[in-house]
Every structure is written in structure tokens, then in C-alpha cells.
Design a protein that fits this description.
Blueprint: E1 3-9, E2 12-23, E3 26-32, H1 33-47, E4 53-62, E5 65-74, H2 82-94, E6 98-101, E7 106-109, E8 114-115, E9 121-125, E10 128-132, H3 140-150
Parallel strand pairs: 3-9, 5-10
Antiparallel strand pairs: 1-2, 2-3, 4-5, 6-7, 8-9
């Protein structure tokens, strides 16, 4: 049962797919990978209101967890400025549940709790977030870049 939840996080307002829960008297907001993808789009729209670059966000759910793939590019398929890419990548990583530790072959949850601007705990249930400073395969921008490389 997912519906929309509204909250402020990192000084910005979000309205995404998710739900609220109360356990042991503690209220919390639960946001899955689809809601996380919506947050990325809303973050970019609020942070870069006059942006003229393209953003693709794809959420995936599978037996081992879930992931977000974020692709950024200029309209001609070239890279966005590094500052914008790093900023979006950093925000995307705040939505990640934890990290995979290859030394012990285990996914480890983040120990740091995240809270809304109002002090309500927020749990993000996206296992992996991948951010690329290039258009996704099969997009018009991807084809434009490849045509330029062939010439």
C-alpha cells in the first residue's frame, strides 16, 4: 500500500510515493526506490530551476534489492558540468540504504539515521544508486554522441 507522502528533507520539499509508519511511538517515513527516483527528479527541478540538461531516472526492483540509475547529459549528449554531476550524485547517494562490502561479501546498512527538516526519521529503501554523466544507451542523445565519435 503505497501512497504519496510530503516532507522537507535537506531544505527542500518533496511529494513522493511512500508511506508513514509508527513503531514503538516513533513516527517514520518509508521511501522505496520509486519514491527515491521521484526525489531525484524533484531535487534537480528545485536546485536547478533553469537547467537545460536532460535527466533520466530508472528504478529497478529485483530479488537482491533495488536500484536507481541516474543519467545526466546536455541536450546534445555531452557531459553536464562536473559540479552538477557531483551534486546530483551526492544527493542520490543519500537515498542509498547501505553499501556492499566485498571483503566479507555482505551488504551493510548505513548506521546514520536521516531525518526530515521537522525531525521525523526517514528510511530510504534503495540498495544501490548509480549515477552516470552520460545519456543512457538507446536514447536519442546517446545516438548523437556515438555518431560524432564515428566521424
Amino acid at each position: 500500500m503505497s501512497n504519496k507522502v510530503q516532507f522537507s528533507f535537506l531544505g527542500m520539499d518533496f511529494n513522493v510515493r511512500g508511506y508513514t509508519s509508527s513503531y514503538d511511538g516513533v513516527d517514520e517515513i518509508i521511501v522505496g526506490c520509486v519514491g527515491g527516483g521521484q526525489m531525484v527528479k524533484q531535487y534537480i527541478k528545485q536546485k536547478y530551476p533553469n537547467h537545460d540538461f536532460k535527466v533520466w531516472v530508472k528504478s529497478e526492483k529485483y530479488s537482491g534489492g533495488s536500484s536507481l540509475r541516474i543519467n545526466l547529459s546536455e541536450r546534445d549528449g555531452s557531459d553536464v558540468p562536473t559540479e552538477i554531476y557531483e551534486d546530483v550524485k551526492s544527493f542520490g547517494n543519500t537515498l542509498q540504504l547501505g553499501n556492499f562490502n566485498g571483503m566479507i561479501d555482505k551488504y551493510e546498512l548505513d548506521k546514520e539515521d536521516r531525518f526530515t527538516n521537522d525531525g521525523i526519521k526517514v528510511n530510504f529503501y534503495t540498495s544501490y544508486v548509480f549515477t552516470y554523466n552520460e545519456p543512457p544507451f538507446g536514447s536519442k542523445e546517446f545516438e548523437m554522441i556515438n555518431e560524432l565519435e564515428l566521424v
